[in-house]
Amino acid sequence: MTINIGKNVFSGTGRFCRMALVLLAMAGCTSSNMEGAAPATGLVGAKDTGSYPNLNIRPQVAAEQFTDEEKNAKLAQLKAEEQSQAAKGGGVKVADQAALDQLAKKHGAEALKQIEGKCDPALDPNCK
Hints:
Structural class: mainly alpha
Oligomer: single chain
Order of helices and strands: HHHH
């Protein structure tokens, strides 16, 4: 009995409703309104050339590659510049580390007050 009910529901009327639903869905997808479409000018995309690409041909390179000698020469030049800067004392000299630590502790609290809008007009003349 269940088989007969299923056969009746899904055969005649059900098939017609499903077909109508599919046709309505397809009709909604086939609009030709191009008013809201984005312009395709300036965009370079895939182009149909009518043939398959030949992957055996190497693509053109943007620039010549360094040889091993050129690479070693540039690395040697960078190392020499690094050593000359280190010999000059390229690091920052700290006069008073304790004063810098005190400034860091105080500066953090002041910056936080300014960020939160609770700045002190005595410290910051632009505070409102």
